[in-house]
Every structure is written in C-alpha cells, then in structure tokens.
Fold this sequence. Notes:
303 residues; Alkaline Phosphatase, subunit A; 13 helices; globular; alpha/beta
Amino acid sequence: MHILMIFLDGIGLGDNNPSVNPFAVANMPVLTGLTNQRRWLNDIGRQSSSRAIFIPTDASMGIPGRPQSATGQAAILTGRNIPRLIGEHYGPKPNPPVRKLLTEDNFFIQLTGAGKTAALIEAYPPRFHKGINSGKHLRSSYQEAVHLAGLPLFTETDLYEGKALAVDWIGKGWRDELGYHDTPIYTPHEAGRRMVEISRQYDFAFFSHWLTDMAGHRGPMDFAVSLLELFDQVMEGALEAWDDSEGLIIVTSDHGNMEDISHRNHTDNLVPTLIIGDMKTAFDDSFHDLTDFVPRMRKLLEV
C-alpha cells in the first residue's frame, strides 16, 4: 500500500463561466471520465465512478476570509485546523506560528518516525537551494514539513537521474526558463508514467504543481487552460501505469484561485479532491475539509 498525493496549488470549483474559468473550457477527457463526464465546476457535487471518487472539499475550515497557501498546506499535512489554531488564514509562506505547528507534528514526521518512506518528488534548481540555505527565502509549508522530517529537497542531480520530476512534469521549464539544455524532457504521457514509477519507491510520495496558482494570480486564460489540458494528459499516463490495488492517488488543492482569473485574489470556493484506487472508500461521507486527509492516510499506511 502506498499513496501518491498530487497537490495542485490554487484550484477551486468555480462557476460555469467560460470567460473567466478555465475549467469551463479546457479539454479534460481523462479527468472528467473519472467524474462521470462532469466538469470540475461548483455544481459537480460528490461523484463516484469505477476507479475514483470526487469530493468537493472545504478549504476555509470555518474561518472567515479567503484561504491561503501556508495554512491550507499545513492543514493538509497535519490534520489540524491550522487557521483556527493561529486565528487566521495566512500565506503564502508559513509564519512562525505555522512553522511551530509543523514542527510539533506533520505527516512526514509521522511517517519517518514509524519507519516508513516518504519524499517530495519535485526537483528544485540550485538557485532555489541557495536562497533557502542563505535564509533569503522561506520554504513553503509542504517543503518545511519535508525538511522537518529530515528528508531532502531534491536537486538537479535527482532530475537528471530520473528520481524526481520538474514542476511542469515534462521538464520544458528547466530548459526554457532556467537555461538548461540537457535536462530530461518527457511527453505528458511519459511524465505521468514516470511519476507513478517514482512514487512506488515510497510509502508516501508528494508532488507539488504550483504553476496553477501562478496562472490564477497572473493569467492569461490560455495559459491556465494549457495547464489543465497538460495535466489531463499526464494523468492519462499515470492511470495507465497505476494499478488500483497498489494504493491511492490523491489529487487536491489548498485554496481556490485559478477557477476565476477575472481577479488576482484567492477565492473561498470549495476545492476538488479526487481519490483513485481500490481503497478510495476510506474517503467516505465523513470526509469534509483539508484536515481530513491525515487521519485516513495514517490508517491506510498503518502509521
């Protein structure tokens, strides 16, 4: 039994408005095939199909205001209502109160303490590591959780060796944006298969895709649509490689954003959670918000 969690930063369930919501127009046959041909919009409701269940999920957790990255990610990885504990939604990077709660306990710490294996399977370039090590930049909540468990954040070496993937899955950004000329390039289908293969090395593998949040803040619509269509192709490869009996693939987010590019702010919309695999029924009707992942994952992985 192992779990692959795919974290798509900043996606919510918005209106069926093709002028502002890329989910209303993107061609996503693989993902909508898992949700009974229903688009990922605010009227989708809970869906169940042969391979998956889909659950609209509360990212606000009873706290007024727009959900934010640091507290949302920390809630996903601690099982605790972080906004309530610190008195607000906060982000994008964790402040001292959020870091304190992550230090006290998080799922990566629980896994390593139980002798389980875990990893954040995204590779980061040298300038990221330099910024973190110099103290000029803060880790995100999920990066901090990994660090506090004594686990490494992967490097360009891991990318070259096929032990980790680029944030865009296919590796094009490392060449176009970072100036590399020989880093691995995958088709979306290949990247999905590779993601599954890497995840099999761990009891819990976490992949973060933050470009969706960037598209929500900056747009344009074409870019947002292209990200969703790329992800759909990645998932085609992943589902082809994945055996539903081996564990769960979980897709979720920390807050809404990209589903409404008419503004640059987060939203308080519900976020999508997609659970794929034979053990998907562990996410029953009592699953409601971002604090509900850890208790179920602990049980499934026997932590």
